[in-house]
Design brief:
The protein has 318 residues and is α/β, with parallel strands linked by helices. It folds into two domains: 139 residues, NAD(P)-binding Rossmann-like Domain (Rossmann fold); 162 residues, Alpha-Beta Complex (L-2-Hydroxyisocaproate Dehydrogenase, Chain A, domain 2), CATH 3.90.110.10. The chain is built from ten helices and 14 strands. A six-stranded parallel beta sheet has the order 3-2-1-4-5-6, with helices on both faces. It has a three-stranded antiparallel beta sheet with strand order 7-10-11. The longest helix has 21 residues.
Length: 318
Amino acid sequence: MTAIKLNRVALIGTGFVGSSYAFSLINQGIVDELILIDLNTEKAQGDVMDLNHGKVFAPNPTHVRFGTYEDCHHVDIVVICAGANQKPGETRLDLVEKNIKIFKTIVDSVMNSGFDGIFLIATNPVDILTYATWKFSKLPKERVIGSGTTLDTARFRFMLGEYFNVSPANVHAYIIGEHGDSELPVYSLADIGGVPITKMIERNEQFKEEDLQPLFENVRDAAYHIIKGKGATYYGIAMALVRITKAILNNENAILTVSSYLDGEYGNHDVYIGVPSIINREGIREIVELDLNQEEAKAFSNSANILKDILSPHFHIN
């Protein structure tokens, strides 16, 4: 009798983002087994009970259980949402230092289990920690993926949809670069249902080109507003992580702006950064190189260099 292939995910870190990811994953019925791992075993076990109690209402009876790093050996994807949060008075570099050390312990523990699947990273700074995971795991670059600018792109499409009064599903536009202050909008290639945004503005006097920069700034700074209002962002990023998970497990060949390793693409090398990438069961099949205009290409290179400068004290960067 042929063994049934099950889709298995291990989640490391059951804080706000991790537990929201688990909740969204169960509600969409994407995986057959979900293993929750956290240093706070009581919290993780509580999440397991809570999720299982609602399973009767979910589309599929996902098996949810508490686990340890040893359980990672047979899973398809390890999703990491664990790590230190930035505290008042701490710099971004302080956060990088702390989380790289945390990730070394996590990734080593996962790899010691015999894991040979795909890493999906959500912890910030996500581009830096995705690079660190690749280095520590020694897995092929295609099988280490960061959430990148998937959420930023979703925010961008939502806000453009609001501005032009169309469904965000019909907005085609990308935010690329660092998941952070140096990210950039690719307005030169943005369109609504196939009509370039520049044409939309030309054809209707209620739309103005000068509105585009403030719109992007609202996208870039959205996290600050959410954090001020509720302390942390977690629903949006959790849903973005589920979308990436679904693209992998369903072998979709979907294009998402994940943090991918550049090896000459966009004229950059040896850096993980948010770019449109084709995602399937093997991980990142291919990076989509957008035809950026001169200003966008310069901004993207600046973003990549910022990431490299942060990485340099920790890793040998080309």
